[in-house]
Write a structure and sequence with these properties.
Length: 334
C-alpha cells in the first residue's frame, strides 16, 4: 500500500508541476522552422576509428579543462544541478553534477568513435570554482571553499548556435542506415531518457545543421520507468538484456520506459515515456550489424579509455568494457 501511495503521489506531482505537459510536447515543428542554407548532418565516416583517442574524445587533450574556474551563473535546465563557468583561458563551460556526470562523459566517447556528433565533454573528479554561490540544486555537492567534486564539463564552441530540437520519429534521416545505427547505440548504452528535448540541432556558421543527442547522462544502468531505472550502475547494466526479438529482416532491442499504470493520471508523461520503447524496435538487421561492424574496430584499450574518461575505477572500467564488447559481438552475430 505504501508503494502504491508513493506512485500516486509522484503522478499527482507530475500533473501539478506541468512537467508531464512539457515532457510530451511536440518538437518536430521547430525542425521545420530551422533556417535554410545549412545542410542537415547526422553522421560522418570515422575513417580513423581504430586510432581515435577515446580518453580525451572529440575535443582532444588540447581542449582538456585545467586550472581554476570562475563562476558565472547557475543553469536551471534539465533535472540535474548545473552551472556555467569560465576557465583561465577565457573558455566557457557548462558544469553538470550528480549521477549523470560520469556515464555521460563515457557515452559521448562511444558515439563520437562511431562517427556521430557529440558535445565536447570532460569529467573532472575535482575542480575549484572561484566565486561560486550556494546552488539552489545540489548545494551539498560544493564545499565552502569552492571545491566541486564529480563534475562533467561541456565546452562552449564559438560559432556554434543551438537552433532547435529534433524528434526520434520525424527528422530528415528517418529510414537511413546511419539513423538506425544511432538508435542501436541508444540501446547499446541503455539510454533510458529518449525524449525529444534531449536532442539538439546546432547551426555551424550557416554551413551545416548538426543533429546531436545532446544529453547522454541517463545511461549505463537499467532502462525503466522513473521508479525502476538506474544510471551509471554496472551490476544493472551487466544484468540487463540487450536484444528482445530477432525476426527475418529486423530486430527489436530492449528499452523499458513505460511508467506504472497510476501514471495515467499524468497522461502526456505516460504516453511520452511509453513511446520511447518504439525507438529501438524494427531496426533492419543489416543496419544493426553495420554499426556493430564499426564498433568492432575499436580496441580493448579504446573501449576501456571511454570509461576511464568518465572517471570510473579500474574494476568498473573492466566490467563496462566486458559488457560492451559482448553486446557488440551480439550485433555482429545477427
Amino acid at each position: 500500500m505504501r508503494n502504491l501511495m508513493t506512485l500516486f503521489g509522484l503522478a499527482i506531482c507530475l500533473v501539478q508541476s506541468g512537467y508531464a505537459k512539457n515532457f510530451a510536447r511536440a518538437t518536430p515543428a521547430r525542425v521545420e522552422k530551422s533556417p535554410p542554407g545549412g545542410v542537415p548532418v547526422l553522421w560522418r565516416q570515422p575513417d580513423d576509428i581504430a586510432v581515435r583517442d577515446l580518453l580525451y574524445g572529440p575535443g582532444g587533450k588540447a581542449h582538456e579543462p585545467r586550472g581554476n574556474f570562475r563562476f558565472i551563473e547557475e543553469d536551471f535546465s534539465g533535472s540535474n544541478p548545473k552551472f556555467k563557468v569560465e576557465d583561465e583561458q577565457g573558455v566557457k563551460w557548462r558544469v553538470k553534477l550528480g549521477r549523470e556526470a560520469q556515464p555521460e562523459t563515457s557515452a559521448t566517447r562511444l558515439l563520437w568513435a562511431a562517427g556521430y556528433f557529440t558535445d565536447e565533454d570532460y569529467y573532472l573528479p575535482e575542480m575549484h570554482v572561484q566565486g561560486i554561490k550556494t546552488l539552489a540544486r545540489g548545494p551539498n555537492l560544493v564545499s565552502a571553499n569552492g571545491t566541486v567534486r564529480g563534475a562533467r564539463l561541456e565546452r562552449h564552441i564559438p560559432g556554434e548556435k543551438k537552433i532547435g530540437r529534433w524528434s526520434w520519429f520525424k527528422n530528415p534521416f528517418v529510414g537511413t542506415r546511419e539513423f538506425n545505427g544511432l538508435k542501436v547505440l541508444m540501446a547499446l548504452i541503455n539510454n533510458t531518457d529518449l525524449k525529444g528535448d534531449n536532442n539538439s540541432i546546432y547551426d555551424e556558421e550557416g554551413l551545416e545543421r548538426r543533429y546531436v543527442v545532446g544529453d547522454l547522462g541517463a545511461t549505463f544502468g537499467k532502462t525503466g520507468s522513473i521508479v525502476s531505472q538506474s544510471i551509471g550502475n554496472l551490476p544493472d547494466y551487466s544484468d540487463s538484456k540487450f536484444i528482445r526479438r530477432i525476426r527475418s529482416e529486423d530486430v527489436d532491442f530492449v528499452m523499458h520506459s513505460r511508467p506504472p499504470f497510476l501514471f495515467l493520471l499524468a497522461l502526456p508523461y505516460y504516453v511520452g515515456r511509453t513511446r520511447m520503447q518504439e525507438v529501438v524496435k524494427h531496426i533492419p538487421s543489416s543496419d544493426a550489424k553495420w554499426i556493430g561492424g564499426l564498433l568492432s574496430q575499436l580496441s580493448e584499450r579504446q573501449i576501456q579509455d571511454a570509461f576511464r574518461a568518465g572517471g570510473f575505477g579500474p574494476q568498473q572500467v573492466d566490467g563496462y568494457a566486458r559488457v560492451l564488447r559482448w553486446r557488440i559481438a551480439e550485433l555482429n552475430r545477427l
